[in-house]
Design goal:
The chain is an alpha+beta fold. It contains three helices and four strands, in the order αββαββα. The structure holds ligand H2B. Keywords: Lyase.
């Protein structure tokens, strides 16, 4: 899949809530939860969503705060797939 241009990335970020660009090739979001185990359940859900389309996030869990980072390794940057997953993760958080 082709890497997106800076302009395409900016446009896609405008359509998402809470995601930001990091080091030009990552999009990042922090999700907050009422309980620690709610965050763990969210991580389980996004793990399945990611495995289904074979595109995997970097995840860090800091008690009730889950940080998710997405990038496309082969493309060495951001592709449509990263933004598709970001929207899927947001739906799973709702
Ligand atoms: C062969 C396999 O589908 C690829 O290596 C996948 C696996 N998961 C992946 N996850 C992410 N985040 N980026 C990739 O480029 C990627 N590539």
């Amino acid at each position: 899949m082709d890497r997106l241009s800076d302009c395409e990335i900016t446009k896609r970020l405008e359509n998402l809530q809470g995601w930001s660009l990091q080091d030009e090739k990552w999009i990042v979001k922090k999700y907050r939860f009422k309980e620690y185990l709610d965050g763990i359940e969210f991580v389980r859900n996004i793990a399945h969503i990611s495995e289904d389309i074979q595109h995997h996030p970097m995840i860090s869990i800091d008690y009730k705060l889950v940080t998710v980072k997405l990038s496309s390794w082969q493309a060495k940057g951001l592709t449509e797939l990263d933004f598709k997953l970001a929207a899927d993760y947001d739906r799973s958080y709702e």
